[in-house]
Fold each of these.
Amino acid sequence: MGTIKVIRIYEHEQPAGYRILVDRIWPRGISKVKAQLDLWAKEIGPSTELRKWFNHDDAKFADFKQKYLAELAVNPAAADFVTRVQTALQQGDVLFLYGAKNKEHNQAVVLKEFVDQKSN
């Protein structure tokens, strides 16, 4: 059984695993070939309104997390996404790839927690 790893897509060294881009918007400067994605789960990312409101402001992260979890709770794509991740984890590690500069305060961190809770 694999684990979920949260990885910035711009990192030069990336571990092996099932690669899922969890951003709603394609990351600048990354070609589709270089990304080597298994899945682009743009429908699972935060809404445009929430993303713009958060604007990667660390002071807003706690509120962002609550609002994003609330979005995920009613997102029709969430259940299928969790199932796909759980299936991929049976084969090995799953990488949640994101473009944000902040490695601690981003949607991929929240999404990992969400999937982990659904898997227990």
Amino acid sequence: MKVTVFLLAQRLIISALVMLTAPTACFSQQAEQAHDAGKIKFRLDDIRADGLRGPADGLVAVSYEFCVPADAASIAEVKRLDPSVQISPGARGRVGCKVDQALCIGNTHQKGWRGVLEKLAALAYVKEIRECFFD
């Protein structure tokens, strides 16, 4: 009887440990994904699948800006990920690029625009992506 109770207690402890560690692993993965998504500093929910937003008689693409290191490898990677991107080395933009960075401006009017933004946000050297307003 004592052996049975001991084995039952042991199983409960092991089950509890598994339950405690499994959610932590899932949480850290979700936190990592949220971290990348948190780099995108504007609402995506209002943008349609075709990359446009606004009223039916005034649909527009959403432009966005971000900074990357002003080196050939980083610029080539960003151009490969985002065909819409325009690169302006030395420009600050509203996002505030530094001297050793290049301002990148892209837009959502492209196939798979959300995936493009997510891939850009996943780059370690992209700190934030902000909506771009042309004044």
Amino acid sequence: MRKGKNPYNNRFKDKIDFTHQVIIPVYLPNEEDYFKDGLKVLKTCLTSLIKTTHSKTFITVVNNGSYDSVSDYLNKLFYQGRIHEVIHTSNIGKINAVSKGIKGHYFKLVTVADADTFFLSKWQNQVVKVFNAFPKAGVVGMVPQFKLYAYLCSNVLFDYALSKKMRFTNVVNPEDMKHFYKSIGWDDSYNQDFLKVNLSIENKNGFKALVGSGHFVATYRYEAFNTNNNNEVKELLGSKSDRDFLDYPILKKGGYRLTTEDNYAYHMGNVYESWMDDQLKQLTEPKEIPVANLKKLSSTKLSHCIKNHVFRKLTQNKAFINWFIRIKGLPKEMTKTPWHEW
């Protein structure tokens, strides 16, 4: 039976004074073979995150059925108040875990990061600068990589096709770019021109951002998740679920995929290395809380079709893309490289 009235009936939840959420899905089923260093890498990830985020950052970790030591570690961080939310589930996959972390919250910006991300000082400040500099920015990465513009960036290429504000510019930090390629298992046999130039756009104040964004760590407008897409995600980990849940919603609203010009995070992989400890010692706490001045994104179906279907097919034409990269300033000595490598 029920006696009396629930005192919380018809009451609203307390306002949460946070502006930015970071969601990290974790899946470490054991500490063997591929996952041998997993817990050490996770600890490094979360330590770097905690050290580099401002006080209005809400940290959510979704534990996808990891072994007991991982669960105990995450619970400890939560009870210490170092992270704000821990969700324990079975292994439901990355995207379902991200979805669980978002439900019930509203933050202007949501960073989704793999559990092997090493966050560097000032990353939040620089990401917000990109959002503020480019009102159409929908997702902002922080790890420059080769040929980011080739993935779901037709809208940016279309809008800046005739503008001198989009051109190939020198890579700001080639050593950190080398670090990323090494972290994903590349040897040094790749085209070294990849370390020299990137396609960038520039605003009226001369602030630059790279065209495109990767997936292992990126910051999204909340609008990316504010959809009625309740389709079941069957993939545990994969590019299709990333596209459907993280990428297409922003694209349909006219948002750009961009990345900071310099590098503000490292990909660690599944092997713990000594440089990680050295880098942790160099991290500094943020001195300010950047404010993201976001205007609502909007796009018509016609505009979306022209930019992301018609124009995208044009960019897949070899002759067109060869011409396009030349007029955008790809150095002459690099134009001999096969078009598909750019």
